[in-house]
Design a protein that fits this description.
Blueprint: E1 3-8, H1 13-22, E2 29-36, H2 40-49, E3 54-57, H3 60-71, E4 76-78, H4 81-85, E5 94-97, H5 105-111, E6 117-120, H6 123-139, E7 143-146, H7 149-157, E8 166-173, H8 183-186, H9 191-194, H10 204-212, H11 214-226, E9 234-238, E10 244-250, E11 255-259, H12 265-272, H13 288-291, E12 297-298, H14 319-336, H15 342-352, H16 356-359, H17 369-385
Helix pairs in contact: 5-6, 6-11, 10-14, 14-15, 14-17
């Protein structure tokens, strides 16, 4: 009997990766539901290829315009994910959330009651709403698997370990495409160059976050929340090869590291086939050449100013993370549209994060998802006026 799967954000890079994995083992897995925001042509093709009978199209205009096209193929189309989930009578085996941005939080909360396992690649959901996600995971007895390469690596390395024995956890960063460039060379560099990550094939937004090191700041916040460890337990180091994804240093003189190729299929594959020894990943992994001359470099806030943001992070959930994510999202979008420069983007974020309009919220916490939505809108409104 095949295992049922839900893919949130199936037309993005994470969604495409898991579909590629499933295409090799269609007999074992059956896709129950796919979702997208705008990419109607891709989800239409995916639904037909994998014989999926339910899809969600979040964009209202696209939903209305293309609804009949899907129905002709006997595919039910929903505008709200909650309406689609009502049609699922029993828990599916696995759900993966590949939705980009804060928009991924609400679908995450809504899908948890309907799945046995949930794999999350959505940083913003965890950063802004982990306490709500965690509460729901416990309530509905749903297993959580982080699939960002760094968090999947930490999760794997800590299995069977006592957290009290952890001395330090190192998150590795590639340094992005501008690691060896001078500040003067990248001051007004166009976004088309910033999205060219040296190792990973990622979406535009996350590629910009990698170039500024914001991605690693987010990952550190995520890790502290997921693994319930204090911020000072983590350190960011630059590893240009991106071959080692995390190192855990234990108090008793032992350190562990996890390596894999720069391919998101690997953590996704392992999260999907966890506990199974029958399925083998087909592509190469161990590369001795990559292990020779690992070339670790200390990350500093002169080269990567966003590392200064780590001084603001607290272990408890506050509005700071929501404000940070919202400001960054808005400024990255402007940069991608060539409305602001690369260095200006960073300076403006660091200036805004100190603005009294926002700092008064840094000791307050949201009580529910609506509070998070309200703060996101508040940030956007303020940025549009300033």
């Amino acid at each position: 009997m095949s295992e049922e799967i839900i893919i949130l954000g199936s037309t993005g890079s994470i969604g495409k990766s898991i579909l590629k994995i499933i295409s090799r083992d269609k007999k074992r897995f059956k896709i129950k539901l796919l979702t997208t925001n705008n990419n109607v042509s891709s989800i239409y093709s995916q639904a037909n290829r994998f014989d999926v009978k339910m899809v969600v199209i979040k964009n209202k205009n696209n939903f209305t315009k293309y609804k009949k096209k899907f129905e002709k193929k006997n595919i039910r189309v929903f505008f709200k994910i909650s309406d689609a989930l009502k049609k699922i009578r029993k828990k599916v085996y696995y759900t993966i959330n590949g939705i980009s941005g804060i928009e991924g939080l609400e679908p995450t909360i809504k899908v948890i009651p309907h799945t046995k396992n949930i794999a999350i690649a959505n940083k913003e959901s965890i950063i802004c709403g982990w306490n709500f996600i965690h509460r729901s995971l416990i309530k509905y007895n749903t297993n959580f698997i982080p699939i960002d390469s760094e968090h999947f690596s930490i999760w794997s390395l800590l299995k069977g370990e006592n957290l009290g024995n952890v001395k330090r956890i190192f998150l590795t960063a590639s340094g992005g495409p501008f690691l060896n460039k001078k500040k003067s060379e990248i001051k007004n560099i166009k976004s088309k160059f910033a999205i060219k990550h040296p190792n990973w094939n990622m979406g535009k937004k996350i590629s910009i976050d990698s170039a500024t090191m914001m991605n690693k700041v987010f990952e550190l916040i995520e890790a502290a929340k997921i693994f319930k460890l204090s911020i000072d337990k983590f350190k960011i180091i630059i590893h240009p090869k991106s071959y080692i994804h995390a190192i855990v240093d234990f108090k008793k003189g032992i350190s562990k590291m996890l390596i894999h190729e720069t391919n998101m299929e690997i953590p996704i594959f392992n999260s999907l086939h966890q506990g199974s020894s029958e399925i083998e990943y087909e592509q190469k992994n161990f590369d001795l050449k990559n292990l020779n001359g690992l070339n670790f470099i200390d990350a500093n806030d002169k080269k990567f100013p966003y590392l200064k943001l780590l001084n603001y992070i607290k272990i408890k959930n506050t509005y700071f993370e929501i404000i940070l994510v919202s400001i960054n999202d808005a400024l990255v979008e402007k940069y991608l549209n060539d409305q602001i420069g690369f260095i200006f983007m960073q300076k403006k974020l660091l200036r805004l994060i100190k603005d009294p309009y926002f700092t008064k919220y840094y000791n307050r916490s949201p009580n529910n998802i609506n509070d998070i939505k309200f703060m996101v809108e508040k940030v956007i409104t303020y940025l549009n006026k300033n």
